[in-house]
């Protein structure tokens, strides 16, 4: 009987796998086409100084203007791009778009900003990536100090030594290295001293319950104190309320980002300065 059941289960899985494989191939083809058809777009979310209230930069967040599904968010296609290897091509597109955006702003005499671009682990193990970035900075006449890369603790762990070397090279060039979603990975604060880190981004999950959860408050205060001792700046993600802003500022958190000031907006909108809703903080 067990054998019979097992057989049924097997056929059930194969049926399901057929559908999944079909869908996967379709999505993979969509992804490849989308790069060619220019369906991707970088949106920009302002990052601000918690003490001066000034916007000093932005995080580039990718969006897919899908011909059928409409505006599609990265959680729906970045994992697929990573699993199929398409992330290398897409990553090239992302980095070039971001740097060319900085170049355009510079040409037009707009205020200098710092742009943070998210990297995936596959990019960190691509030995040609450093020279790719160097060429783009030259091509668009952008100083390395205007650029930052956001990486997660887990993405470094794939090949720690290679990733460390690459990040060190980037930091030596003047590029800011930020640890994204800090506090959600397995690594500890102690590991930071082994990495060339400029900025820590405290994960939104700690900021969310700041007002109610005393433990989260203590964790954030400890992270900030530790980071500052190591000469690392701290940015809090996902600030949605005035209370959170004020509390984080009182903890001496350096920077912030979140819907309280603005979600990610198009380049045009960011250029016009419209994302900043004028809360009087
Ligand atoms: P992330 O890098 O941690 O980006 C922060 C995410 O939180 C963004 O979602 C942003 O829109 C959202 N967010 C910002 N402020 C708030 C807030 O106040 N409240 C709430 N509820 N959410 C907020 P998004 O754009 O959907 O991106 C999701 C993730 O996809 C990113 O997380 C990042 O890991 C990845 N991603 C986005 N763009 C890229 C990219 O260009 N390359 C790579 N490799 N990954 C990307
Ligand atoms: Mg990020
Ligand atoms: Mg994050
Ligand atoms: Mg994230």
Automatic annotation (TrEMBL):
Which keywords does the record carry?
Membrane, Transmembrane, Transmembrane helix
Give the main location.
Answer: membrane
Q: Has keyword Methyltransferase?
A: no
- Write one Gene Ontology MF term: cyclic-guanylate-specific phosphodiesterase activity
Name all EAL domain ranges.
Answer: 24-278
The record's Gene Ontology biological-process terms are: signal transduction
Report the subcellular localization.
Membrane
Q: Which GO terms describe its cellular component?
A: membrane
Q: What is this protein called?
A: Diguanylate cyclase
State the species of origin.
Answer: Marinomonas ushuaiensis DSM 15871
* Lineage, highest ranks first: Bacteria, Pseudomonadati, Pseudomonadota, Gammaproteobacteria, Oceanospirillales
The portion of the full protein included here is: 450 to 730 of 730
């Amino acid at each position: 009987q067990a054998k019979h059941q097992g057989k049924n289960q097997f056929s059930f899985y194969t049926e399901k796998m057929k559908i999944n494989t079909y869908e996967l191939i379709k999505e993979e083809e969509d992804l490849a086409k989308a790069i060619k058809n220019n369906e991707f777009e970088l949106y920009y979310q302002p990052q601000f100084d918690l003490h001066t209230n000034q916007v000093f930069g932005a995080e580039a967040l990718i969006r897919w203007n899908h011909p059928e599904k409409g505006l599609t968010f990265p959680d729906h296609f970045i994992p697929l791009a990573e699993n199929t290897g398409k992330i290398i091509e897409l990553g090239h597109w992302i980095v070039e778009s971001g740097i060319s955006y900085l170049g355009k702003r510079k040409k037009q005499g707009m205020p200098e900003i710092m742009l943070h671009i998210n990297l995936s682990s596959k990019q960190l193990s691509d030995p040609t990536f450093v020279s790719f970035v160097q060429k783009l900075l030259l091509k668009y006449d952008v100083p390395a100090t205007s650029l930052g890369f956001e990486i997660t603790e887990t993405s470094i762990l794939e090949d720690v030594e290679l990733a460390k070397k690459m990040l060190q090279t980037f930091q030596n060039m003047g590029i800011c290295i930020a640890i994204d979603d800090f506090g959600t990975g397995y690594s500890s604060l102690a590991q930071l001293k082994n990495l060339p880190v400029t900025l820590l981004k405290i994960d939104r999950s700690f900021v969310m319950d700041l007002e109610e959860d005393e433990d989260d408050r203590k964790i954030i205060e400890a992270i900030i104190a530790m980071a500052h001792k190591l000469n690392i700046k701290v940015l809090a993600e996902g600030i949605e309320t005035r209370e959170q802003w004020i509390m984080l500022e009182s903890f001496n958190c350096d920077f912030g980002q979140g819907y309280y000031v603005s979600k990610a907006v198009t380049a045009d909108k960011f250029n016009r300065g419209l994302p900043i809703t004028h809360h009087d903080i």
